[in-house]
Design a protein that fits this description.
- By secondary structure, this protein is mostly helical.
- The protein has 2 domains: 30 residues; 215 residues, MetI-like (MetI-like fold, Orthogonal Bundle), CATH 1.10.3720.10.
- Helix content is 86%, strand content 0%.
- It contains 11 helices and no strands.
- The chain is globular and about 75 Å long.
Length: 250
């Protein structure tokens, strides 16, 4: 019941926001700066061919490749730090420092290194998304109950059994929390990379339309990027619910 009320409240809020936006845009009457939602929808329909066929697959490829690399890299580093205190002391400060540098300042450097290929955008995406996965997974691996660990040791369990039967289940909720943050950031990373150097993609298309002062065409790919982020978040949430049924039952 509470979930239904929450969904209804969110729906009403979004509807009210869109109505206010529509009215304000028509009152200002400067569609190249503030297009109304109806104008953005019309532009989406008008540009559905190039957006969905030419630019959307490029952005999706960047996001998926970047997320896969971030998951492998982030989980691998987290496991390494959890089993090696010396690795944790050496690597953790570097991971933190990597987030202190503005990504928008590094993106042009990646373009110089990798050109306008997909890999310059993938590197930007990885740099943004691996951090929450790494930190959350590492914290999850450290959150295993010490009492249960000592009990397993007294029962003759080895490091392998403790890792897979205690630490991994303890880390999974933290991993999914980091992944839910990462999937939304992956959209931002791909868009930033395409804005600063690309030949195709939703971010590239939005930047190109900005030079033509077509406000609705600038917003159209942004709407698609937002939908991608929402869909990815819902997918991760669904996988989390399916794989962590034991947490609900407990």
């Amino acid at each position: 019941m509470n979930n239904r009320k929450g969904s209804l409240s969110a729906g009403l809020f979004i509807l009210a926001f869109l109505i206010i936006w529509e009215a304000a845009a028509r009152a200002v009457n400067m569609i190249f700066i503030l297009p109304p939602p109806t104008g953005i929808i019309e532009k989406l329909w008008e540009l559905k061919g190039p957006l969905l066929i030419e630019h959307l697959p490029v952005t999706l490829s960047t996001i998926i490749i970047g997320l896969v690399i971030s998951i492998l890299l982030g989980v691998g580093i987290a496991v390494w730090m959890s089993v090696s205190p010396s690795a944790e002391k050496a690597i953790y400060p570097i991971i933190i420092s990597s987030q202190m540098i503005p990504i928008i300042a590094l993106a042009p450097i990646f373009v110089l290194w990798f050109g306008y290929s997909i890999w310059s955008k993938v590197v930007v995406t990885v740099l943004i998304t691996f951090f929450p996965i790494t930190v959350n997974t590492y914290d999850g691996l450290r959150s295993g109950s010490q009492e249960l660990k000592e009990l397993m040791l007294t029962m003759g369990a080895g490091k392998k059994e403790i890792f897979f039967k205690l630490l991994v289940p303890s880390a999974l909720p933290h991993f999914y929390s980091g992944l839910k943050v990462a999937v939304t950031l992956s959209v931002i990373g791909a868009a930033i990379g395409e804005w600063l150097g690309a030949q195709a993609g939703l971010g590239y298309f939005s930047r190109r339309m900005m030079t033509q002062f077509d406000g609705a065409a600038v917003f159209a790919p942004i709407v698609l990027l937002s939908l991608i982020g929402i869909i990815l978040f819902v997918i991760v949430k669904w996988i989390e619910n399916k794989s962590l049924k034991w947490r609900k039952s407990s």
